[in-house]
Amino acid sequence: PAGVFDRLTQLTRLDLDNNQLTVLPAGVFDSLVKLKELYLDHNQLQAIPPALFYSLTELTRLELEDNQLKSLPPGIFDRLGKLMYLHLHENQLTTVPAGLFDRLGNLQQLGLNDNQLKNVPRVAFD
């Protein structure tokens, strides 16, 4: 539920992989302002709330592989300027919104393999 992590304001790594998560409530990570690594891989997530990562401006690693994500909201990564590792492989993504990676100037690894992408717009990486 939202607020479950409210007292963990000093947390730098959160590992929720290999569970059966299907939904992440909006605001669930809002108090984790020092979080650097977030592992949500190997779950059953089908969608992500648009502002889910809004407070995670210190995040350097985000693992979302092996879920059931069909799409990503435009702007979902806009406040993650320190992100270096983003793994989205083994989902069901069919497209990538224009501008999705625009603000990820420090990105070193991007995993999009094993999805259902038919094309990736050039403007996804502007």
From TrEMBL:
It comes from the Eukaryota. Keywords: Leucine-rich repeat, Receptor, Repeat. SUPFAM superfamilies: L domain-like. It comes from Petromyzon marinus. This is Variable lymphocyte receptor B cassette. Pfam families: LRR_8. InterPro entries: Leu-rich_rpt, Leu-rich_rpt_typical-subtyp, LRR_dom_sf. Coiled coil: none annotated. Signal peptide: none annotated.
